[in-house]
């Protein structure tokens, strides 16, 4: 969609024909597979289990080409990201923030270069900084390799249950801490939103005022495709809680000049 300007349905069909997407693509395009993976990775990274069903999950099936194009004009690419963050350095239970959603990624970010069938895991910590693991995540070879790795892991766990020491003690349930997912309203991140509006004086100011009244700081606000039929206003915010963002969006959509919220994505 980013490289060729093609529509979502066309790109998905090509991916299925090439064997990179399942006949039923829901697990991939609706973010379900990414949510499974981030739940497992959070277990390993933070040392405790999380409730997979509680992970907020949005896929790319509703992603529109114009948002990919607008993001490119503003210096971003769009990626489906699964994110796990520790909300505090310590605590019992340890509060975590998890989410899966299409997200704007700055062009100079390491994840911006992850394209095609490749996947990446970016780990950020102190004092190591950023470390990225990168490689193909679809196709005959990568899939076969993953299946064999799963079989070996199952065999190892089976032997451990019979008294062998082959299971890493760091993964033993007795060594895990308690973790809990924070309320979705407490999740903090930047946002990209696109509104359909009238092309009238003062609309941008009223939208900005609603954000300001709601405690949402704006990084940029841009108007696209202004005409007699209306305009599209794209806003990128600074980091803010989901609760404050949702409250501000409710106020903006109540404005008579705003006909609707057309898109809402995350932003790094």
Total beta strands: 10
- CATH homologous superfamily of the largest domain - what is it? Dihydrodipicolinate Reductase, domain 2
Largest sheet: 8 strands, mixed
Count up the helices. Answer: 7
| CATH fold field value of the largest domain | Dihydrodipicolinate Reductase, domain 2
**Element pattern in H and E:** HHHHEEEEHEEHEEEHE
Distance between the termini: 20 Å
Dominant shape? globular
Q: For the residues shown, what is the average pLDDT?
A: 89
Q: Helicity range of the residues?
A: 25-40%
CATH hierarchy, class of the largest domain? Alpha Beta
- Tally of structural domains: 2
Strand residue content: 25-35%
The second-level CATH architecture of the largest domain is: 2-Layer Sandwich
**Class inferred from helices and paired strands:** alpha+beta
Unreliable stretches (pLDDT < 50, length at least 5) are none
Any overview of this molecule?
- The protein has 268 residues and is of the alpha+beta class.
- It folds into two domains: 133 residues, Dihydrodipicolinate Reductase, domain 2 (2-Layer Sandwich), CATH 3.30.360.10; 81 residues, ACT domain (Alpha-Beta Plaits, 2-Layer Sandwich), CATH 3.30.70.260.
- Strands 1, 2, 5, 6, 7, 8, 9 and 10 form an eight-stranded mixed sheet that branches.
- The protein is globular and about 75 Å long.
- The mean pLDDT is 89.
Condensed summary:
With about 270 residues, this protein is of the alpha+beta class. It has 7 helices and 10 strands.
